Write a sequence for this structure.
């Protein structure tokens, strides 16, 4: 809108206004996008102007970073200010005339380009003039000699960050219960009233007659105790709680600056080295306050090398929090919602035919611009005028059903009749791999735009999408009897049974049986008690992965066009099903009507009445967990509970009585859909024990 040009003219005649614009980056009332565009315009005027802007932004960022590390500052305001300035800095840096493309990390290996000058200033005190020297001394930062030669402002901030983390690591290595020294030091920064405290007198050691001199730190800490500053002490007792958010925000800024010096898709070696060096402290931060992951540790999603270090902590976070994080990063970089709405371009509308919705949709999606599809979808059926979200929902609904249409031979129904698995013989359709790629695109698009599909896949296929290895229990979805045989092999000594199994199996290929080796020379390798676990795993991989590997690869190629692998790994296979297909509805009355009772229970028993009362009180999510706990499936088949399948055909949900002992949890036998419910003495105990079992044992299997 001419702001950049206007500012350029103003600065030309009034150079002092340049610093005014730089200082505006700290004002959160001004739109960041607007400032970024203005500075981008100014930076393109000349090389010297470009370097001047970067140098000035680096100085302001450093000053704000040191303020953030000062515990007397307002955390929220300083954190937002620092990250805002760094985002603008990185944006201007990237659009420069000599963006790195050779993989060199200038901040790490000293590769000198003209832009490396932005990290240097002639007078350090101009950069850190607002930093309290006492605050820097107490944190053991390197002493700044204001008369020394050139230093780098951002490097000063990163050095301060490093020193903080080293200091905390030192304290963690000591007795964690004895952090009096560092706490007393931090207490000095709670406000200006404490910074020039007068020396405190010595105190008598409790329980002794003599008087002993305490250390200065201990005396000062004791002074606060005696002065009754209990609230301040409570705030300062845990140094990690006091500093974690501040340091994590600076770590985020450090990562952003490291990344902007690297080619797209590459992780800065310097940052990886930094995280590895401070691994214990960062994990301590996250364990104390997992929200830090979602607020500041965005780098985990972009660094597979680092993600694995924190994955167990991430997976332990609430599903809702991970969903929000997922979509926040999935849609990062897309046009802001406050930007002017642009009408749909006629060329961007997906025009499909109802009578050939699968093929026509495949054709238009394959030709569409992927980036535009990520931003939004507009669908119109040929010969119809309707458009909008209702049409989009209908399109996904019809298309998801067509994906598993037997006519295309892409997917086959699993043994339970409710889920689908890629068809190992899908090559009967000459376009099968293109169609699998299209199916991946549709599911990726649906997930991107929070649209639900009305199909469910086997657990093993969800695992393939997530990159999780399958195990022999997953075989049950396509062949329950074969899965039982594998389980039997694992549970029994096969040394003297004469099974004469080898590391090769016969498999059906278009109706003809072919022998397939599980590993090189497998036909001549006997299965023994010692190697049977390897045999079971290789058989599982053959049936669940190798037999459909081309189909899986094609599907993932399409899926990853819209959903990055690093993001989807935030979830497990059960959660992925919820994201794609939503929470299935469960009719409790239909459930009750199609339930059988055994081992002493009858419908009118008090424990059974309590059980159904509890089921009525459960949330929809908890009912799904209960169904999963007992049957191994989170879905009710078409036709209701009367059509639930067991290991040998139709098998109703069954509740069996078990003698009660204190703290005994319910158990289940999923092969026969049986809940083994102890005879609890009260409804409250029954509900408590049932919920513990659901939340701690709804996933995973053992032999009954």
């Amino acid at each position: 809108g001419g702001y950049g040009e206007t500012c350029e003219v103003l600065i030309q005649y009034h150079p002092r206004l340049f610093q005014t614009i730089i200082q505006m980056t700290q004002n959160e009332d001004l739109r960041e996008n607007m400032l970024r565009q203005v500075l981008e315009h100014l930076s393109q005027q000349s090389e010297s102007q470009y370097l001047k802007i970067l140098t000035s932004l680096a100085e302001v960022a450093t000053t704000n970073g040191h303020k953030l590390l000062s515990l007397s500052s307002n955390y929220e305001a300083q954190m937002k200010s620092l990250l805002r300035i760094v985002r603008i800095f990185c944006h201007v840096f990237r659009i420069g005339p000599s963006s790195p493309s050779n993989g060199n990390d200038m901040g790490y290996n000293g590769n000198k380009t003209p832009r490396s000058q932005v990290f240097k200033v002639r007078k350090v005190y101009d950069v850190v003039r607002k930093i309290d020297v006492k605050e820097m001394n107490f944190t053991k930062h390197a002493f700044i000699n204001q008369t020394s030669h050139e230093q780098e402002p951002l490097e000063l901030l990163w050095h301060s960050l490093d020193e903080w983390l080293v200091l905390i690591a030192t304290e963690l290595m000591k007795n964690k219960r004895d952090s009096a020294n560092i706490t007393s030091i931090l207490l000095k920064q709670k406000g200006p009233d404490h910074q020039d405290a007068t020396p405190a007198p010595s105190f008598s050691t409790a329980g002794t007659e003599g008087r002993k001199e305490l250390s200065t730190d201990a005396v000062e800490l004791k002074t606060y105790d005696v002065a009754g500053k209990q609230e301040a002490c409570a705030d300062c007792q845990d140094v990690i709680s006091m500093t974690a958010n501040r340091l994590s925000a600076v770590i985020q800024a450090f990562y952003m600056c490291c990344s902007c010096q690297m080619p797209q898709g590459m992780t800065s070696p310097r940052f990886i080295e930094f995280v590895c060096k401070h691994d214990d402290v960062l994990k301590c931060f996250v364990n104390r306050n997992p929200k830090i992951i979602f607020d500041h540790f965005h780098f985990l999603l972009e660094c597979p090398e680092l993600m694995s270090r924190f994955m167990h902590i991430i997976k332990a976070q609430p599903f809702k929090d991970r969903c929000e994080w997922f979509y926040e990063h999935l849609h990062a970089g897309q046009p802001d919602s406050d930007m002017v709405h642009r009408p749909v371009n006629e060329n961007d509308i997906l025009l499909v035919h109802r009578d050939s919705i699968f093929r026509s949709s495949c054709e238009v999606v394959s030709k569409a611009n992927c980036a535009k599809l990520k931003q939004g979808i507009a669908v119109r059926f040929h010969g119809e005028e309707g458009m909008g979200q209702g049409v989009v929902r209908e399109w996904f609904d019809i298309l998801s059903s067509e994906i598993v249409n037997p006519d295309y031979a892409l997917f086959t129904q699993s043994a339970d009749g409710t889920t689908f698995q890629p068809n190992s013989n899908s090559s009967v359709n000459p376009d099968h791999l293109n169609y699998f790629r299209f199916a991946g695109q549709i599911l990726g698009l649906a997930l991107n735009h929070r649209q639900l599909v009305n199909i469910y896949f086997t657990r093993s296929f969800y695992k393939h999408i997530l990159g999780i290895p399958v195990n022999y229990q997953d075989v049950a979805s396509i062949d329950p009897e074969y899965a039982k045989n594998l389980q039997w092999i694992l549970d029994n000594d096969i040394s003297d049974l004469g099974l004469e199994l080898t590391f090769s199996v016969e498999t059906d290929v278009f109706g003809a049986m072919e022998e397939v080796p599980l590993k090189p020379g497998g036909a001549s390798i006997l299965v023994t008690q010692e190697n049977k676990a390897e045999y079971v795993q290789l058989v599982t991989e053959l049936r669940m992965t190798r037999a459909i590997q081309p189909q899986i690869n094609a599907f993932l190629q399409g899926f990853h066009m819209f959903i990055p692998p690093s993001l989807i790994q935030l979830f497990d296979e059960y959660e992925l099903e919820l994201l794609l297909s939503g929470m299935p509805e469960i009719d409790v009355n239909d459930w009750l009507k199609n339930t059988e009772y055994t081992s002493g229970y009858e419908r009118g028993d008090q424990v059974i009445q309590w059980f159904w009362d509890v089921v009525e009180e459960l949330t929809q999510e908890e009912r799904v967990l209960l169904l999963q706990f007992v049957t191994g499936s989170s879905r009710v088949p078409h036709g209701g509970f009367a059509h639930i399948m067991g290991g040998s055909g139709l098998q109703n949900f069954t509740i069996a009585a078990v003698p009660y002992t204190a703290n005994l949890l319910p158990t289940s036998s999923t092969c026969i859909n049986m809940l083994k419910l102890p005879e609890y003495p009260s409804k409250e105990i029954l509900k408590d024990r049932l919920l513990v079992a659901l939340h701690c044992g709804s996933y995973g299997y053992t032999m009954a």
User: Anything to note?
Assistant: The mean pLDDT is 76. The two ends are 71 Å apart (CA to CA). DSSP finds 34 helices and twelve strands in the chain. Residues 452 and 582 are 6 Å apart (CA to CA).
